[in-house]
Amino acid sequence: MLRALYAAATGMEAQEKCLSIIANNLANVNTTAFKSQRASFEDLFYETYKKQDTIEEPPAPIQIGHGTKLSSTSKSFTQGEVQQTQAPLDLMIKGDGFFKLTMPDGSEAYTRNGNFKLTGEGDIVDAHGYKLDPEITLPDNTVNIIISQDGKVSVTTTDDSTQQDMGEITLSKFMNPTGLESIGENLYKPTINSGDAIDGVAGLDGFGSIDQGYLEMANVNVMDQMVQMILVQRAYELNSKVISTGDQMYAIANKIR
Fold this sequence. Notes:
With 257 residues, the protein is α+β, with helices and mostly antiparallel strands. The chain is built from two helices and 20 strands.
């Protein structure tokens, strides 16, 4: 009976964590390039009451489990919806790949969020001031910015109406992007599970192309999240009912004279 109480408690704890993940997905439904997350669970260890030692024994051992626990979380890197902005430094990756950024400590981080800005020195940076890698700096008299689908950046200036080549925005991809570590601010860090970054040219060798004037929105399916939330609520209610029923049975047993 006590085993049932503890097993149901692990079920309630697991559903609470699942609800937190759903809440985070819904909270970021309008976050640029946000990738939805899902939870995976696994059963806990089993207590074996009778093994199959001989052929005359029952065809399966007698075992009772001890509940569940959260085993992993993973992100879905499916393409999000497209939003047209017409801003020259709003970039969307159509397909596989990440923009590479240089962090203040010199390390590298990766993002799908292409909402870039210009600093006073002409550097292309993200919303938090982290520079693109490789670094691209535009002249202070730039009047027009052209970014091709393969990442080539060119500008026209007040002094010269012909296009000047300013560099190239490269992309990075990973063998297992679901293994990336989310560090907030729409940024990811590579891990052993994700593998090292593979750099390449947009539109070639399996890399996505770059669309100027567009942003990738979150890939959160609100209806799917609402359905999952209902299932989580029902599972939580059932586990709480098990605890309530177990408590009643325990009280009956204690009253036996």
